[in-house]
Amino acid sequence: DAGVIQSPRHEVTEMGQEVTLRCKPISGHNSLFWYRQTMMRGLELLIYFNNNVPIDDSGMPEDRFSAKMPNASFSTLKIQPSEPRDSAVYFCASRGQGAGTDTQYFGPGTRLTVL
Amino acid sequence: AQKITQTQPGMFVQEKEAVTLDCTYDTSDPSYGLFWYKQPSSGEMIFLIYQGSYDQQNATEGRYSLNFQKARKSANLVISASQLGDSAMYFCAMASGYSSASKIIFGSGTRLSIRP
Fold first, then answer.
1. Residue B63 has what pLDDT?
2. Which of A62, A94, B6, B15 is least enclosed by beta carbons within 10 angstroms?
């Protein structure tokens, strides 16, 4: 299995621009998570989906952030408009189904820099 | 409320020694899972080990073992015979509920540095 795939790996953009981060979970996993990691705040859960349905988006910082999961193999996290304080590493992770197989695997992350 | 606490921001250990990274948790759910992840300087999050709340024995994976003390609500990671490549940030995490639909919360991490 290729693992969780994220793209792009690095993104540099200017303040005010729209940013779209993409994630392909591990095939067969039914839960998908978006995290943000910064030195100041550590690892924060932004939103997670189960069977393509958003379950908890309480970690989404504000209306500028939105996430979708149109099917079991693809999710996007969009920031519009982006701000310098959004600079962080954004991780996508997926998790299998069934008791005893709950391990969550992370993608390599997208390092976002907003100038 | 669910909570994960890692009280050691940083640790220094001599190569080849064993090291214990502390983790305590709090949850009211009788079913939960505990995880440890390693994040080296390259940035990726690497899954190390998992322990379910109903597992009778402590989990082990190679040089990693999880010292699970349910009554004390602790899930310490033990690394035997540490190596220079073990230098990294280590995160403890918990999922309440025995389903992949439950979210996972993370501790603040412990930075482990191995001295040659």
1. 96
2. A62
Sign of CA dihedral B8, B9, B13, B17: positive
Q: Which of A55, A89, A93 sits opposite B43 (nearest CB)?
A: A89
Of B52, B98, B100, the CB nearest to A95: B100
What pLDDT is attached to residue B98? 58
In this complex, which of B33, B44, B109 lies closest to A102 when CB atoms are compared?
Answer: B33
**pLDDT block averages, 10 residues each, chain A of length 115:** 91 97 93 94 92 92 94 96 96 76 86 97
Sequence-distant (6+) residues with CB within 8 A of A81 are A15, A16, A17, A18, A64
The token duo for A105 is 């695997």
Q: Which residues in chain B touch residue A104, judged by CB atoms under 8 angstroms apart?
A: 35, 47, 93, 95, 104
Cβ-Cβ contacts under 8 Å for A72 (sequence gap 6 or more): A25, A30, A51, A52
Q: How many Å apart are CA A60 and CA A69, to the nearest integer?
A: 15
* Lookup: tokens for B103: 């979210």
Instruction: Indicate left, alpha or beta for A28 from its phi (over 0: left) and psi (-120 to 50: alpha).
Output: left
Instruction: Provide the token pair at A99.
Output: 């008791």
Question: In chain B, what residues touch A90 (CB-CB under 8 Å)?
Answer: none
Q: Are B66 and B78 in contact (CB under 8 A)?
A: yes
Q: How far is residue B107 CA from its own chain's centroid?
A: 9
